[in-house]
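Exercise 7. Given the components listed, write out the predicted structure of the assembled complex. Treat all entries as one system.
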Amino acid sequence: MTPCDPVTLEIIRGAARAAQAEMEALLERTAMSAFIREKKDFYTAIFDAEGAMAVGSDLPIFGDIVGPVLQRYPLDDMRPGDLYWYNDCYGSRGAVSHSNDQVFLVPVFLGGTASDDGGAQGHPATPGITGAAGRGCLDRPRRGPVRIGFVMGWAHFSDIGGLRPGSLSPEATDHFQEGIIIPPVRLQRDGRTNEDLLRTFWRNSRFPTQSEGDTRALMAAVRLGEARLAEIAARFGAEVLADAFAQLLARTESIVRAKLKATFPVGTTRFADAIDSDGQGNGPFVLRLALTRTEEGRFILDATETDDQAPGPVNLLMHPDVPGMALGLYFLQGEAGQVLNAGGPRAIDEVRLREGSLLWPRSPGPLGLRGLTMMRLLAALHGLVAVARHGEAPASHSAYVILALRGEHQGRRFLMTDGVAVGYGARPFADGVDAVYFVAQENYPVEFMELSYPVRLRAYGIQRDSGGAGRWRGGCGVVREYEVLADTAQVAVRIDSVRNPPWGVAGGLNGGSGRAVVNPGTPQERVLPALSDGTVLRRGDVLRLETGGGGGWGHPFDRPAEEVLADVLGGFVSPEAAARDYGLAIQDGAVDAAHTAALRAARGEAKLFHRRGYTDAVV
Amino acid sequence: MPSSDLLVAVDIGGTFTDITLQDAATGEAWTAKTPSTPRDPSEAFLAGLGLALQAAGRRAAEIGRVLHGTTVATNLILEGKTAPTALLTTQGFRHVLEIGRADLPRRDNLWSWRKPRRPVPPSLVFEIPGRMAADGTELQPLDEAAVREAVHAARAAGARALALCLLHSFANPAHEHRALAILREEAPDLAATASSDVLPVVREYERSMATALNAGVMPAVATYVERLEARLAAGGVQAPLLLMKSNGGVAGAADIRRAPVQTALSGPAAGVVGAAAMAMAAGVPQIITVDIGGTSADICLIRDGKVGLTQTGRIGPWPLPLPMVDMVTIGAGGGSLARVSGGALTVGPESAGADPGPACYGRGGDRPTVTDAHLVLGHLPPALLGGCMALDPRRAEAAIHRHVAEPFGLPVEAAARGILAIADNAMVGAIRLVSVERGHDPRGFALVPFGGAGPLHGAALARLLGMTRVLVPPTPGVLCAQGLLAADLKAEFSRSVAWPLARAEPVRLEAAFRSLMAEAATWFEREAVAAADRSTRRVALMRYEEQGFELAVPWPAAEDPRPALAEGFAAAHRALYGFDLPGVAIEIVTLRLEAAGRLPAPAMPVPCGGGAEDAVIGQQALRLVSGTVHAPILDRARLGPGAAFAGPAILVQLDATTLVPPGWQAQVHPTGALLLDAATR
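Answer.
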């Protein structure tokens, strides 16, 4: 194998990142569903010739994407012009973990792009970098196209059929109620599209035009990525590219492994946390993680003691690569020049799961709302770090909140799926982030909502006191108040971490919980179950959604008084909470130093975690 | 009336203020350089003007136009030093700036990212009862008492500027206009601005941000402009002061005072306009410009000499959806630092800045930069700025050795080449983003490198992109002045309509454009543009219904424009994205009228000088992959039209150094521009 020197490696990494940026820009500009174009629920990745993810997105939830395709379509049978597609969760062992996410995958070849067959749909973007010497490819005997990698485009389609509009519902009891399932299929061969397959897929959507627009956008994006990766290979040669991918994988693996060693002592570190419910009256469900570092330096993550799977759709079919990706993202903080890829999972030698558990359910257990379990899992991995490092870890975050409102208005069917931000956990070096949904995903502007859906927003702001108190404050969640303008509309809400609020760490307090209230402050006020579907609202009804925050880090009394005061003046912390949690006295809009000192003198004993009181373990 | 033949362009940099005085009729030009006076930049402005007038032997009263690109607003925003600003917003939406789009940048790590501090803290945001619906109907009247209370509270809290952004004001600005009148009544001494005057487009966060930034730069820009005008008047200048906007056009001081945030990208825009004018004069209408400074590079694609506009631009971490020159900025420049960590070699975005600067400057910097790599490879002469600033190659070598070569076990030369290759790669990525992503093949364009470091990279970038022609402007380091002298008066007037194309009757479209024409006419009057110099261009921003991003489609000349619009949109969609969606409904989102007031462009100065052999002032060892060769150093000022030579060569001039690598043929165009053509192989 031709070794790739450090300079070429950085150039290839930069070119791969640029290719991703172009694919993402194309998707954002051409997709039709608000889910993709405004919320930006899409990701891209580049794989090596065997299918290992070499350059991923900074998203900690990917499994082995290419593997499921290879089971059906052997590598040797692939050729330029192919395009593969699936959303099959059980069929991909959790590479995709709910069916709305569509994976489009293109094998990329050197010496035969699909463009001559029309496979790139006439995309003009293939100028090539002809000025540079194609080092590796000049002396290689030409024997037809050489496969050099894969390119993925991944996006959440807003409706693919199923029980309810939006395809995801807390009421689902069976995965077959969560939309059409596409096993790994070959959507294009020699650049020719199996249009029958697409027509079948679109026919299963309640919003077929959007589905068609999103499909075309995703296909164009992966073809663009294909052209870019082929150009990189043409410039440096297949062998150099392969070595570059191998080095990127090895680099990430060695950094993650070194940091795992620096973090976890020999022996077993344990942490457990719980999700509240499955939306069908069951729960809580406990996730139990045990990370073992053996004497020989092997790392084994064992989740077999996790509770049994839920009847409701909160099961997370966790691909065994996911913990490594998640810890990989955590350990790559501050590592400029590194990429999250399959090197993360390789740093963990073994992942043990138990069939029939919440993290490895049996088919056809419903999966649609696995996001809340995913978010709890990410915090639980940080919990392991917190235990091993005596609190040097981020506090817990809330799981992102989703509100779905559907019905008919002026003769047209509508589906408003609003992804709502929450607060993230405070860190040992900074406050938690306020009002973030998840990686790279954006909110719907109020003006966009009112132009597009039969709702009026009465308020959208920071949910005061939702950030856990601490030396570093947990991020705050938000409040969003909707007035319904349609005659009737059916509502689904998805809120977790109510009974089990996000824990604080190292003396920091837990973050606040979310809730959904109909007609607040009126005699008709009622709180909706946090995870529920089917509530019918009528014109003029008001739904107030409050989302949870992140836990705090460090003792709140150690937070400088001016920072607490700024939070009070800015609407993040109430004066009462400032006095109660931070020991801060305010007089006429300024810090009362003497009274504050007195309050802060009475400081109790803290423990490692906090959830409604200090504790050594949160469940 | 003053003679309109004498023009002045003033470019105020961090260190020097450059003045260009030009006789528009003859093209003859005089320049002056004077130290900048940061405390009151107008001092250097006038001092430099005096020097230039003296050199030209002309009088201030003869000046017909004073043109200026200002970085006052840019620096205030980027350094977070805008005036204490209060934002008045609709009740219930106090945290619109804090929440933003709830987004974490796609390439940032979720666990380590910190939210940037907003230009207005939430303690200075005041909620006002009163509500418009999305279609512009009033749902609840404006609470005028609340506006008055907010003004007093804001003042008590120390605000010096007031920004107003109410929901749906793009559909109906009545509440904002009334509230603005109240602000002016209650606080005539505070700067005040309303979003519907700054940017009447949908999306409250982006609009609020633009309005808050506008308010925050108003006091400083107003003071600045007033001082300039006063000094000019005192100095006997009777000509109007025109300032460069981010859209590549100039506008009078009144327009700038109203919406100073329009100058946020004044500097880079002026450079792009200058490059476009220079390239057109040299008969090269299809260009990609690369403006490489110390910390960043701005890249822009220009078709047929016309600079494109975008409304999805940014400044620093903030969105700024005002029409601005459509360019991409990346963190790679001469001062970008090379570092090795975790086995990875990266270049930028961290920069050594002006202080301490590259290691070879000998000002205490010991980390290697892109400039150090150039010096080690022999791309730079032993001294810059006409010999005023010596460069120390040993320091450059030591820095590269210690921080890059040693960790990787590479020779210093290879490490230096690697640093440049990585910086070039980042720029290539951005060039592809502005060209390929927009449906163009860069090979059909000429590369125009400028900025202090641009001409060192031009040929290498062109080669990487398969481009065969490079055009180096006569004064690549001070192209802003050329842009100012070439710029026209420009303004855009737009209306959010959101009409399905099929139901947009020609009568309605015409009526909408007529009202925009009326707005433009008022603007033409205010800017005193003669009828013959006025021009307008209609543009429709269109998309497939339910898409989120619009394409600008030129307005067809037809009684019913719709069929041609539909066709034009589909064609643009195919060209950009590789597909269209026949049968899917199309929507007109915005109608835009682009107005321009033509200002007579000055004649190009005629360069003097002779052949290449007479311009050689030394030679230098150039370290190439193939081995070391000796390259001549040429004094660019001595190269006359028609002078021709082959690379390798190094061209020096006051403001930049040009590297002509082997394999390139150079020729001086009659305009003084240097044309580099790749030798055919």
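Discussion: Chain B touches chain A through 88 residues (CB under 8 Å). Chain B has a mean pLDDT of 90.
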